[in-house]
Amino acid sequence: MEPQMTSATATNAAARAPQIYKSDYKPIWCPGCGDYSVLAAFTKAFAQLDVAPERIAVVSGIGCSSRIPAYLTAYGFHGVHGRALPAATGLKVARPDLTVVVAGGDGDGYSIGGNHFLHACRRNVDLTYVVMDNHVYGMTKGQPSPTTEPDWVSKLSPAGTGLRVFHPLVVALAAGANFIARGFSGDPNGLAALIAEAIRAPGFSFVEVLSPCVTYRPEQREWKASVRPAPVAPTDDPARAARRILTDDGFNIGVLYRGNRKPYQPPVGQGAMRVAELEKAFEI
Questions:
Q1: Of 187, 181, 172, 219, whose CA–CA distance to 200 is shortest?
Q2: What CATH superfamily is the domain 18-281?
Q3: Which of 12, 52, 81, 228 has its CA 20 to 30 A from that of 220?
Q4: Residue 52 burial (CB < 10 Å; 0-12/13-18/19+)?
């Protein structure tokens, strides 16, 4: 048996308090939604990192989880459905000095945004993607999402979907993500440490967060009794990580893979090409 996985590396008390990262807007999620705790984890993670709000940019798409930028004092970009990652990638490449974090959900990230997820992992730009996964489209009345169990029965899927679930951690590993972890919204302090570690890690970091939807998936309240620290230490071996993730039941919490790929960052600050020069390059 391998040693038990440890939590994120402890840091000294931050000079900034989590409260300074909260905006004046009041969250409007359903009472009991796990995203409240994820929001708290974001502010605690930023405080642990002791980074100024104006040095942070939080990008999102569409969905319950994608409201997060409005509830923070950092710079925010609320994009269109499924397109948060390309916007964040462009921002980080142009402004590598910023801490860029993307907030999304399983519908926004794995369905309409699935192709961007693949290529963001492949590009390995130094940003962090936090996905709140509740296995359902919570904002649009409870349709099955890519991670919904095939036998889950609802008014919108009376016979279940019968479809194999999307496995984001396996896909992230195969596509080239440099840091892969799973957290639980019911443990905001542990999740904050995990997000902070993901931000510190170079390259594309992916954090799956089990965040219950108590409105359309009330049975997910039982997740609290199912999650536990993963019984293995993080690995930098993709083959070993693949074996672990493929045999995982979805409730092991912690860092599952920490790679060593060099992040992608093209040169910045070079002079712009003049239009005449560009036209000349295409002359026949």
A1: 181
A2: Thiamin diphosphate (ThDP)-binding fold, Pyr/PP domains (3.40.50.970)
A3: 81
A4: middle
pLDDT category at 196 given cuts 50, 70, 90 is very high
Rounded to whole angstroms, the Cα distance separating 103 from 68 reads 7
Q: Contact, 225 vs 199, CB < 8 A?
A: no
Is residue 248 within 8 A of residue 227, CB to CB? The reply is: no
Q: Are strands 252-258 and 99-105 parallel, antiparallel or unpaired?
A: unpaired
Distance, first Cα to last Cα, the chain: 66
Residue entry with tokens 């960052």: 265
Domain ranges of the chain: 18-281
What are the pLDDT digits (tens) for 105-119? 999 999 989 899 999
What is the DSSP annotation of 55-110? GEEEEE-SSSGGGGGGGBSSEEEE-STT-HHHHHHHHHHH-TTSEEEEEEEHHIII
Please tell me the distance from the alpha carbon of residue 273 to that of residue 275, in angstroms, as a whole number.
7
Among 203, 193, 180, 184, smallest CA distance to 126 is for 203
What is the distance between the alpha carbons of residues 82 and 116, in angstroms, rounded to a whole number?
Answer: 8
User: What are the residues whose beta carbons fall under 8 Å from the beta carbon of 147, sequence distance 6 or more?
Assistant: 106, 110, 133, 135, 165, 166, 168
Beta partners for 257?
A: 180, 235
Q: Which residue has the tokens 């039941």?
A: 249
Q: How many CA atoms lie within 13 A of 94 on its CB side?
A: 7
pLDDT in tens, 28-57: 999 999 999 999 999 999 999 999 999 999
CA distance 264 to 247: 31
